[in-house]
Amino acid sequence: MRFIWATRGRTWGFTFLSTAGLQDPLLSYEAVMSGLGSASNGCVRVGEAVALRFHDPERRTDRSGRPIPHNFVLYDELTERVETVEDGLREVWPLVADDFARVWDLPRAPHPLR
């Protein structure tokens, strides 16, 4: 399953934890995520991809107490299974939950995990 995943940790700012195999995922990320605008949660199809954003299901926050958002650009079979935030929580979150639990409290952002 291919997806771009951008989030932040307790002390580190936004970074890509998954790049969908792209050398530079930023352009694709910006193009697809723009479909959500500034919504704090949402799910929208943009061309062949799906933009998905939700707050951390474990209610983790950064050191300033702000909720941690998870931003995804979904490709391939995930676009067929995810049409709502609830679908994303059911289908996507289990794919990354353990990875995020291991890294969110690190002092520095990790390199992409996928």
Structure description:
With 114 residues, the protein is of the alpha+beta class. The protein has a 5-stranded antiparallel β-sheet with strand order 2-1-5-4-3, sandwiched between helices. β3 and β4 form a beta hairpin. The longest helix has 11 residues. The mean pLDDT is 95.
What tags apply to this protein structure?
4 helices; single chain; globular; alpha+beta; 114 residues; 5-stranded antiparallel beta sheet
**Averaged pLDDT:** 95
Given the structure, what is the number of helices?
4
Low-confidence stretches: none
**H/E series, N to C?**
EEHEEEHHH
- Which structural category do the helix and sheet elements fall into? alpha+beta
The largest sheet has its strands arranged as 2-1-5-4-3
- Extended strand count: 5
Q: Fraction of residues in helices?
A: 25-40%
Q: Which term fits the overall shape?
A: globular
Provide a concise account of the structure shown.
Helices cover 27% and strands 25% of the residues. With 114 residues, the protein is α+β, with helices and mostly antiparallel strands.
Write the layout of secondary structure elements.
Layout: E1 3-7, E2 15-19, H1 26-33, E3 42-46, E4 49-55, E5 69-74, H2 77-81, H3 85-91, H4 93-103
